[in-house]
Fold these 2 entries.
Entry 1:
Amino acid sequence: MSAELISGKDLATNIKKDLAVEVEELKKQGVTPHLTVVLVGHDPASESYVKGKEKACAETGMGSNVIRLDETISEDELIQTVDKLNKDDAVHGILVQLPLPDHIDEQKIIDLIDPEKDVDGFHPVNIGRLVTEQEGMVSCTPLGIMEMLDSKNIEIQGKNAVVVGASNIVGKPVAQLLLNRGATITNCHIYTEDLKAHTKMADILVVAVGKAHLITADHVKEGAAVIDVGINRLEDGSMTGDVDFENVKEKASYISPVPGGVGPMTITILLKNTIIACKRQENVE
Ligand code: NAP
């Protein structure tokens, strides 16, 4: 058996076309969704993510700008910047690129962003809304994963979903989204004693750890849907996921690749979230 590929790249391209149409319609009503990204310092990975976000906004006709701040900026100055953006009616989405320099309390900054403009979905209010199934902003990578599963009509209700990795930004929210859709969830982490015993039970297996090829064919149930979130750089500079793609694809029914899987979906959902935030703030459809 060879699994069907879930190409996040193709799906993202299609979603972006729809978003461009939606932006066009909003512009006719005099509204342009606008995302502001705050970048502190010059971390090369962050610089590259921010460039990708700017490019994607431009492709869909949305407005965007990047506020670049020196890495020596004080916590108070960053607080003032976020406060200004919260009050700026022209800004619908605020994203503070993480990580922040060590002298700045990351959670304090996240807590300060207006939950209605929190397009990353990291604010505790939005996490609470996710858990209690209320309308809010849901973080981009987890939502992208759900769209990937839905694009193939993969059944979720009543299925065993196992998420490996329990971070606040990927593992926990995706487990919650799967629970909200009626899956029976298991969330594995560093202290999980027998990882294989859990993953082998999974109809849906989501892996978000950051360890190249942690998941081998032995970990996977025949016919499972496998989503690989991991991004790992190999010595030769190439990128690979947390799943041993070549061997697991022979056992799974669906599998997402790295690169070209979850990555492109994350940025696309960020655009989608900004449009949702814009519509709610401007009271337009
Ligand atoms: P993270 O904050 O480092 O979390 C990793 C999680 O994996 C933690 O919960 C950790 O457990 C768990 N873990 C570590 N070793 C494990 C093991 N051997 N078995 C089971 N669980 C283990 O990372 P993250 O931010 O969630 O990101 C995870 C991966 O996804 C990274 O490679 C990241 O680059 C990638 N990522 C990709 C996208 C994308 O758009 N494609 C977006 C975000 C992240 P403890 O909490 O107990 O330590």
Entry 2:
Amino acid sequence: MEILDGKKAAQAIRDVLKIDVAQRVNEGKKIPHLAAILVGNNGASETYVAAKVKACEETGFKSTLIRFEGDTSESALLEKIDELNLDPDIDGILVQLPLPKHIDDKKVINAIAPSKDVDGFHPVSVGKMVEGLPTFVPATPYGIMLLLQHYKIDTKGKHAVVIGRSNIVGRPISILLSGNSNPGNCTVTICHSHTVNLKEICLQADIIVAAIGIPEFVKADMVKEGAVVIDVGITRVEDATRKSGFRLKGDVDFTGVSLKSSFITPVPGGVGPMTIAALMKNTFLACATKN
Ligand code: NAD
């Protein structure tokens, strides 16, 4: 069993981006600038946004964190997005999800200019991705593809089983893995909460992508010998021995499954860092296409 080390692979991507940014600086060109919007004080969202801002700084990007109170109105948020859309210094706009219930997240995502949609959630970006056209690919599925590429995992003709059908992970990764690309060219099955015989389907998988949000959902008896296992899940579970009071758990029972898998991502240190690296790549692309 080999670990798919997302931390290492992400660092390699960020090292290249750092050089690319330095080159832009030398040439007197604009440096990439990411604007991140955070609404409310959700602990996990705070952590994710902080990690993204830190990654920007370490790579030589500019970043601006815009905070709104949890009771901010939808119109105030939309107004800010309009302002950022028009600001020529801002290359990418990221709205950290989930948003408070009184705000329609679809409306907010649709308000972002597709040219600045570095999270790749705008319908224009999604449509282009489905058609295989160049676009901003959502960061988590893009990060998974980059991880498979980094470790030269052979995906051609393999049966990939994706568990979860969310718009941010399950659906887009199923589209990318089924595409005529490398990595890609998989035969893909998407499973979800209404799937029957999930265990039997998983046992046929050469590649499993678990994006469910239920800690340790995928057990060893659901995994074929030699399968590649990608664990997207991140759930905070109570842990009194930690200073923070919690620890992160993935959707895969790592201890059991790692005995059968050929490659497996850890949590933390797998898909998480790759998501940030993918976001950085999208932000660099947003800047480089316009400037
Ligand atoms: P979601 O809640 O939107 O979707 C979960 C999916 O799991 C749904 O499509 C549902 O049908 C499916 N599901 C639920 N119960 C099931 C069951 N019993 N059997 C089969 N399928 C079932 O979640 P999401 O936004 O896709 O996120 C999934 C997990 O990935 C969460 O833990 C989230 O925190 C994590 N995540 C991690 C990253 C990262 O960067 N590593 C990014 C995004 C999400």
